[in-house]
Amino acid sequence: MDDTQGRTTKDGIRIYDQSDFAGMRASSQVTAQILDEVADLVEPGVTTAALDAFIERRVGELGATSATIGYRGYQHASCISVNHVVCHGIPGDKKLKDGDIINIDVTVILDGWFGDSSRMYVAGNLSRKAERLIQVTHDSLMVGIEQVKPGNTFGDIGHAIQKFVESNRMSVVRDFCGHGVGKVFHAPPNVLHYGRAGSGAMLEEGMIFTIEPMVNLGRPETKVLADDWTAVTRDKSLSAQFEHSVGVTADGCEIFTTSPAGRFHPTWR
Ligand code: MF3
Ligand code: CO
Ligand code: CO
User: What is the pLDDT at residue 6?
Assistant: First the structure.
């Protein structure tokens, strides 16, 4: 990697070129393929450690490496966040139960490019309230992505997401945000999922970042458990999240982490 190449905006946001977009496309499609494949394994009785083991194996088989193994001491190829876990759930020996909703978040590195995405999955039967939460969370990401074009600001993205979520009487988590991505895992800017229209840095062609709203059925507050990773809702309400890595184009954006099998939304089943 050569950090001296390319341009960085006054806000410290890197501007990438067409060949960089090709690199992001390739790594992100590995992530998306693995997220497609793991869907077949999600069912009551399976452990989140088993899901993570599958993911770790497929990352290697597809010629990539895990961005999360060894990242700040994290030891797994995925974060798996069940029910009231907001994000950064650690895979373990607990078995999924009927009706559990889970987010699986995978980041791979291929040829130096980081592809970061997460989706929701369901074990067994989905309750009506969980279905609504998943739908609103998915749609909030898409509403945010609709704002991604040169001339809009990062505040436009956050504002659109917050307005959509709150109009559905759910809440947006403030304690975690999206981020610049590309040749590094977490780069400027912080991509907030709430905020004021027109605020924040201006979007420019060539920027690459994630949008990854976390939405709660109850209040937005979170806390991190004693393991220093697992973030949960303080009020124990259900939480959901979807994440795409996107790049700003001349007239909109490219979603790098689209599902090759059309399985991004869990109602594909
Ligand atoms: N993939 C997460 C994100 O969306 C980060 C996970 S870091 C880990 O930014 F160490 F918890 F895996
Ligand atoms: Co991310
Ligand atoms: Co992620």
Answer: 82
Query: Is the Cβ–Cβ distance between 220 and 180 less than 8 Å?
Result: no
Q: What is the DSSP-derived secondary structure letter of residue 202? A: B
Per-residue pLDDT of 87-134, as tens digits, reads 999 999 999 999 999 999 999 999 999 999 999 999 999 999 999 999
Alpha carbons within 13 A on the beta-carbon side of 87: 23
pLDDT surpassing 80 at residue 268: no
Tokens of 18: 């067409």
Atom of ligand 1 nearest to the CA of 106: 1
- pLDDT for 226-243, tens place per residue? 999 999 999 999 999 999
Question: Annotation-wise, does 105 bind a ligand?
Answer: yes
Q: What residue type is 167 in one-letter code?
A: S
Torsion sign across C-alpha atoms 222, 119, 72, 15: negative
**What pLDDT is stored for residue 5 in this prediction?**
65
Nearest one of 136, 215, 210 to 173, comparing CA atoms: 215
Q: Are 216 and 239 in contact (CB under 8 A)?
A: yes
Is residue 201 within 8 A of residue 249, CB to CB? The reply is: no
Q: Name the β-bridge partners of 231.
A: 87, 224
Of 34, 35, 71, 79, the one to substitute when testing ligand 1's pocket (max ligand atoms within 8 A of C-beta) is 79
Task: Read off φ and ψ for residue 104, nearest 5 degrees.
Answer: -115, 125
Residue 193 to residues 45, 95, 159, 243, 257, Cα–Cα distance (Å): 34, 31, 7, 11, 19
Please list the helix, strand and coil fractions of the chain in percent, rounded to the nearest 5, in that order: 30, 25, 45
